[in-house]
Design brief:
It catalyses: RX + glutathione = an S-substituted glutathione + a halide anion + H(+). With 156 residues, the chain is an all-alpha fold. The protein contains 6 helices and no strands.
């Protein structure tokens, strides 16, 4: 039996998930822009063709380098990709499984908060274990939703 799209819009958990997914995806998109901003303002590029507007020939080579601030933003963005993608997939399935709204909101809010805190801990930088704890909190939320799905809704 096919799901009725109009009924899906009535699913409060799914709508909450859509809201938090939009927030976290927007944050992840911002990290792409932040990486590009740092690359341009620091004149630090990974590819020769990206350097050509700053010089030609041998002059280009001085812009092909790494910079710690650029690398921090880039690594924070990569960490987002590693964590947000699983959250989106598992969170969608979890949202459609009929969880309690307050429990689902707790999962979504903690995950989003942990990802924002993780980014702040990466970029400022805050001393460890700040970043590590933020990572494991978000990862734990995704595992909690996966466990709930496997325990309550899937037929294994």
């Amino acid at each position: 039996k096919m799901a009725n799209p109009a009924k899906l819009m009535d699913n409060e958990v799914l709508m909450a998930f859509a809201s938090y997914a939009t927030i976290i995806l927007s944050k992840m998109m911002f990290m792409s822009i932040a990486t590009a901003f740092f690359r341009v303002t620091k004149k630090v590029f990974a590819n020769p063709e990206d350097c050509e507007s700053f010089g030609k020939g041998e002059n280009v080579k001085k812009f092909l380098r790494t910079d710690e601030s650029v690398e921090r933003v880039r690594r924070a963005h990569l960490n987002d990709l590693e964590n947000i993608v699983p959250f989106l997939g598992i969170g969608l399935l979890y949202s459609l499984s009929g969880p309690d709204l307050s429990t689902a909101l707790l999962h979504f809010r903690i995950f989003v908060g942990s990802r924002f805190y993780h980014t702040m801990a990466y970029l400022l930088p805050l001393p460890q274990p700040n970043r590590g704890l933020a990572f494991f909190v978000g990862y734990g939320v995704t595992l909690s939703m996966a466990y709930s799905l496997l325990r309550n809704r899937f037929y294994l």
